[in-house]
Amino acid sequence: MNIMSVSIALHVLSVVVWVGGMFFAYVCLRPAAATVLEPPQRLTLWAQTFARFFPFVWLAIIFILFSGYLMLFTLWGGFAKAPVYVHIMNGLGIVMMLIFMHVFFAAYKRLREAVAIQDWPAGAKKLAQIRLLIGINLSIGIIVILAATMGRALLG
C-alpha cells in the first residue's frame, strides 16, 4: 500500500462524510423534522445533531487538507504545475471551510444558546441561517466533487 492510495482514500472518505452528511441533513432530515416536530423539539434535535456531526466535519477538514496538499505536492510539486481542476477544488474547498467555520463559531453557537434558554424564535432564526449556509456549502461541495471526478476530462 503506497502513500498516494492512502491519501486518495482518506480524501474521498472525508469528502463523503462531510458532503454526504450535509446532503442527508438538508434533503432528508430537515423536511422530515419540519413536518413532524414543533419548534422546541426541532431546534433541540438540530442542536444535538450538529453537536454530533460537527466534530466529524472538523476531522474531515483536517484530513482533506492533509491528504489534498500531500497529493498536490507529491504529484505536481505544488500549485504552479497543478491542473486547473485542482485549483478549483482547492479554492472552493477553502470557501467551504470558511463557511463552515462561520456556521460553527457564530450561527451554531447562537443556536445552542437559544436552545439552552428556550428562546425558540431566536433559535429558529439561527437555524434558518445555518440551513441557508449548509445549502450553499452542499452546492459548492457538489461542484467540487464534479471538478474532482470530471475535471481532468473537461479542464485538463
Care to describe what's here?
The chain is built from 4 helices and no strands. With 156 residues, it is mainly α. It has one domain. Helix 1 (3-36) packs antiparallel against helix 2 (39-75) and helix 2 runs antiparallel to helix 3. It is elongated and about 55 Å long. The two termini are 27 Å apart. The model has no long low-confidence stretch (mean pLDDT 96).
Uncertain segments: none
Shape: elongated
Q: Helices and strands, in N-to-C order?
A: HHHH
Helical content class: over 70%
Rg measurement, Å: 18 Å
Main beta sheet strand tally, sense and closure: none
Give the number of domains: 1
The separation of the N and C termini measures 27 Å
Descriptors:
90% helix, mainly alpha, 4 helices, elongated, 156 residues, 0% strand
Brief write-up:
This protein is elongated. The protein is 90% helix and 0% strand.
Q: Secondary structure elements and their pairing?
A:
Layout: H1 3-36, H2 39-75, H3 84-116, H4 120-155
Helix pairs in contact: 1-2, 1-4, 2-3, 2-4, 3-4
